[in-house]
Amino acid sequence: MTPMNFLDLFMPRRLSRTVATFALGFAVSESQIESIGSKLEEIRDRGVLNCGVDDGQHGFAEQDEETGEWTGFEADLCRAYAAAFLGDAERVNFVPLTTVQRFDALVDGEVDMLIRNTSWTFSRDAEARVSFAGTYYYDGQGFLAPADLGVSSARELDGARICVQPETTTALNLIDYARTFELDFVTVEVPTLGRALESYQGGACDAFTSDISTLAGFRATLETPAEHVILPDVISKEPLGPVVMSRDQKFPDAVRWVLHAIIAAEEYGVTAANAAELAETSDNPNIRRLLGAEGPLGEGLGLDAQFALRAIETTGHYGELFDRHLGRNSDLELRRGLNAQWSQGGLLYAPPFR
């Protein structure tokens, strides 16, 4: 087989192979090119990944008003995908979306993927047009309320005004919870977290319900976080995952295995700092396959051998990513819980890179 330069796939076909070779120096085979799905071709021809994110969720995706820089767990995941697919973590266009806008934006082609606190459910997965490509965060729905409200459980909120984002599983779960325990809630719809903040602080609602990770970030942005409590009730399962269009099965698979690579890296002790060195020196066959030093694992999905290496160097392994934005090195200080590795009592489990 005659090797081709990888950036031939990233740039419009009208550009010469010479230009592509000059821009980046890694190659793939002819058979790999034939296997690449149309969505990856589209992204590479465009030269940028359009990533749908939250329009402002602390810890997950928020934009600095002065610099315009996006930060957060989900923002860094977008960068990891850009590195894996395009060879450059900065080739990502962040598209802020509300809960109401997100699926239409994906279906209409405004974004290539959603990395936007979207729960994987039966009805969404049954929708023929979209696919979930794994779970990057295991969450659950809870309630935030002022400490001086004097409640210790959501079951004590009968008759309360509850802020909730519309057209979400959160809104549906609230209805189910009220029905199960014969509670009467007055719902106050807030389309964005910004509006939720205004309504909650302004007294338009007595409590705010959302994913617990969202509530933790929301609470951290309040003027006096200590005066607000996340109630102990967890009323749902919320597996958050990347969402893509279903028209090209290779693309969901590629998205899924980039996520698996970041998870597997933690299991094998591969960090942002040591990934390149381990790719050269490790004798562990699992690490060598993961980092592209042994075997062309990415070919069938249209990925080059170093796709995982680039993603890991961008974000670090899953634990590094979590600690930086959500855990011990952040102001949220969330515990790993279900988001720990399977060997540490959590649910994170990457299939073998073999």
- State the distance separating the first and last CA atoms: 22 Å
Q: Give the proportion of residues in helices.
A: 25-40%
Going by CATH, the homologous superfamily of the largest domain would be Periplasmic binding protein-like II
| Number of strand segments | 16
Which percent band covers the strand fraction?
Answer: 15-25%
Largest sheet: 5 strands, mixed
Gross morphology: globular
CATH C-level class of the largest domain: Alpha Beta
CATH architecture of the largest domain: 3-Layer(aba) Sandwich
Structural features, described:
With 354 residues, the protein is α/β, with parallel strands linked by helices. The chain has two domains: 38-137 and 241-344, Periplasmic binding protein-like II (D-Maltodextrin-Binding Protein, domain 2, 3-Layer(aba) Sandwich); 141-236, Periplasmic binding protein-like II (D-Maltodextrin-Binding Protein, domain 2), CATH 3.40.190.10. Helices cover 36% and strands 16% of the residues. The strands form six sheets. Strands 12-11-13-10-14 form a five-stranded mixed β-sheet, with helices on both faces. A three-stranded parallel β-sheet has the order 6-3-7. The chain has a two-stranded antiparallel ribbon with strand order 1-2. Helix 4 (73-86) runs antiparallel to helix 13 (307-315) and helix 10 packs across helix 13. The chain starts with a strand and ends in a 29-residue tail after the last helix.
